[in-house]
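Catalogue entry: protein

Sequence with per-residue tokens
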Amino acid sequence: MFTGIVEETGTVVAFTQGSNAWKLQLAADVALQDVALGDSIAVNGCCLTVTQFDARYAWFDVLEETRRLTNLSTLAAGTAVNLERALRFGGKIGGHFVTGHVDGQGVIEVFEPRGADHYLRVKASAGQGRYLIHKGSITIDGISLTVAEVSGDTFAVWIIPTTIQVTNLREKQAGSVVNLEFDLLGKYVEKLALPHRS
């Protein structure tokens, strides 16, 4: 479980196909503090398990399905990724409850400065607009944000300057693909209200 408050951006060192999984190596600082084998770290909002680490790097195995269904498939050496360690009991919850299980990808349609802030509009996959509500929560590449506008499967959020500085959004532009995780509560409500859906 995560909060969607990105702790730092790490850097992809290598992302290669192994015999039984893709191998992702990241350089990081904050995310490696007190790390242990088997720990969960959200990478662009995708929950991954630490399989190896040292003082500067962490390694993860990435399933083919995970690579295919997320923007991890676009990673290359030098790419900045958003990192967040798993929520600890007694810690602060500054965003919202995030599982790190990406629901799908979205495509940035507009990303531009408007005054001191930035306006970001994203097109989600067909039918996913049902999980979006005005002033509800959304996670974009692991960043907890508040939905400001909804139109069908398209939504917009406002980004403060600090978020631009501390996340990989500073490298995004129109056409960039981002990972989306919709609010967990909405998905459970849908399941309970419509039990025939799987």
Notes: Helices lie at 64-69, 161-166, 184-193. Residues 8-85 form a domain with the Elongation Factor Tu (Ef-tu); domain 3 fold (CATH 2.40.30.20). The mean pLDDT is 92.
